[in-house]
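Q: Convert this sequence to structure tokens.
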Amino acid sequence: MDSISAVIITHNEARNIGRCIASLRDIADEVVVVDSGSTDETETICLKMGAKFHKHDWEGYSGQKNYANTLASGPWILSLDADEALSDPLRQSLLALKTTSPHPDTVFSFNRLTNFCGSWIRHCGWYPDEKIRLWHQGCCHWSGLVHEELQFNRPIQKKRLSGQLLHYSYYSVEELAARQVKYASMAAQKAHQQGKKSPFGALWLKPMWTFVRNYLFKGGIMDGKAGFIVCRMTAFYTLVKYTRLRELTKEKTEQSGYSK
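A:
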């Protein structure tokens, strides 16, 4: 395989970025970091560890990642979030891959395992959470408002590598709750733009079903106390999403009434 450029976007990621970059040793031929105004030690850590550090105003998740990809000099892009790191088994898979010559139309995915307050969540609908993170330059781009997704410019073949992408995303319940509110509000805005509405019953039935599905049917109960909290907070996300969607629909109706 030709050289690999690891690409990471950051904003105040001092607690995570060192671990992320360290896991890329012997894998990435360069590490490109695009930062949107960090005020902590993110820049110092990146430069100390040999990363190429660029400052760029925030364009949204998709826009920021697409810009970062343009700065990669290698033909292969390995895209990571700052709070992610390669596990040792995944590192071995990537090292083995580097000795081969994969076709440019092949993309590679990994299973992502998330850590919540020190516990690895292997159920709850959070795992295996397969993500495509390695591809050849020019075959795809990021799109999407809430959860950015890859859009492919040509037919591709996907291969999943063994090993896990470790996701150190949530250090406290409060942090998870804040993230859920943020993402749920963004999801509601997207749904509203698509003309979707929130029936009254959805405010109660959908959160309840979300909890039951993830805790019982998707095995969240097997993750112990952490699993219960995760499933409860995922139900909270659903409640916020449909509550906010209902509010947006009401606002639009009232504005339409005023304009008549």
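The mean pLDDT is 94.
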